[in-house]
Amino acid sequence: MSTPLATPHLRIALLDVLRGVAIAAMIVYHFFFDLEFFGFADFGVTEAPGWIAFVRTIPASFLAIAGISLYLAHHNGMHWRNFWWRIGYLVAAAMLVTLISYFADPEAIIWFGILHCIAASSVIGLAFLRAPPVVIVLVAIVVLIAPLFATPALNAPILLWLGLGTEAPPSNDYNPLFPWFGFMLLGIAVARILAPYATKAVWAYWKPLDPMTRTLALAGRHSLMIYLLHQPVMMAMLFGVARLIGA
Q1: Comparing 3-17, 100-114, 139-153, which segment has the lowest mean pLDDT?
Q2: CA distance 46 to 37
Q3: Which of 75, 132, 172, 210 shows its CA 20 to 30 Å from the CA of 31?
């Protein structure tokens, strides 16, 4: 029986579900953020430690899943056309987010958000697809702790994408390579460890059957579209409610 990981065209349903969970968590956070933004409530979503910890797990999850997917898609040989197509639409979506943020909130433009980070990390991650897992994990640890040694010498605007300066730019979504690329490396390491067992692994063949997991899998398959649309939709709805009640 051949491994389902032998082709880049076969999706792993479990990864879709996990990606769906991450996008659902993002919607939950943004919903409470928007409620606070419109003055309906005060949840402290940008200050409370619990909320901060919750929101940081979201990009970490996306990048780790992206790392797993990157390895599974290309571990049997690079499929360059598929890879560059994916990078192309990620970059296009990231630029769209930057453009929209420029008009929506010029004081907090999204210069290097989660989409920018996933695109850049995917390109850099290619260098680690054949590296031993222990090497990948060690590099991941270095990337994750590197911001602890930030220096003012790297505060120049052109270097903000690195995340190694002592000043973060005012932005509604800032996910620089350090430390976030470390989570993609961890995803690649996990995939490298698990891939040899895929022919007999339950997770490689599991399919969602109940409504909840099927919905999450569907959301995971369309996570980019949901990411781009969920905030404008929620903001428009809450704006309408605010106008109706005179808030």
Answers
A1: 3-17
A2: 11
A3: 210
CB 43 within 8 A of CB 51: yes
Domain count across the chain: 1
In angstroms, the CA 239 to CA 104 distance is: 14
Residue 12 has pLDDT above 90, yes or no: no
Identify whether 3 is part of a domain: no
Is the residue at 115 inside a domain?
yes
Helices (H), 38-79: 49-74
CA dist., res. 185 & res. 189, Å (int) = 6
In a domain, 1, yes or no: no
Residue 163 gets the label, from left (phi > 0), alpha (psi -120 to 50) or beta, of: left
Picking from 50, 181, 49, 32, the residue whose alpha carbon sits closest to that of residue 121 is: 181
Q: Torsion angle, CA of 195/198/204/206, rounded to 10 degrees?
A: -150
Residue 2 within a domain: no
Average pLDDT for the chain: 92
pLDDT band at 247 (very low <50, low <70, confident <90, very high): low
Residue range(s) defining the domain that contains residue 120: 8-245
